[in-house]
Amino acid sequence: MAKTVVVHSDFKALGSQLQEAISGFDANIDFVTKGERNVIKKVSIGDSVFTIKRFKEPGIFNALVYQFLRKSKAKRSFEYAIRLIDLGINTPRPVAYFERFSFGLKDSYYISEHIAYDLDFRVLNHNPEYPNRDEILRQVAAFTFKLHENNVNFLDHSPGNTLIKVSGEGQFDFYLIDLNRMRFEPMDLDARMKNFRRLWLSKRMINVMAAAYAQLSGHSQSKIHELMTKYSRQFQKKVNSKKIRKRKKNKLH
């Protein structure tokens, strides 16, 4: 079985211990996320804590695609993290990625530094009375504007993929995670507003974020509000329709 091991130059000294962490991944019970597709666990090495994400094994066709035609999700996550940091955009520091191949990609892992964050964007969705909520929303809008100005189209810009750390009184730092779906390209206003759709914004959230984005971008607040609302509602309607169809299908069975 062929394998690829790439360790960031900042962490070369930990190479053998990182490989041991991959070998012991199944035995590790320190879960961060136990999803249907991907599993994320924590591991301590010396004084440092790292996050290991194992991606679901692809089907036969995609396994061959990832070996010969397209970069794996682990490799993309590693390379995109380096690129984001070079742009001054926060993401947990990339540490390493591992791939194993046998007639296609069998499994892959991405390792990054563990971030001790205070909340993620989902908290703002579910708790309208969260302290400093409007200010956090304004700063998320500014963070997203920074992404767009740097030609970063984060395709998974959803509530669970922005970690938030309190950095001072009324000040917050934002970290992108789950990086493998990203394009680096110029974005017009329409594409920028469409990029907000997965955040599942309420009317009040749109009011706050549209005003903040408009102030930074120079576009009219009314136009930004119109487009942000349009794409948010289209996405929400699509997701809700899928849920309804799934419930009906389950009842039939």
From TrEMBL:
Keywords: Kinase, Transferase. InterPro entries: Kinase-like_dom_sf. The keyword Transferase applies. It comes from the Bacteria. GO terms for molecular function: kinase activity. This is Lipopolysaccharide kinase. It holds the Pfam family Kdo.
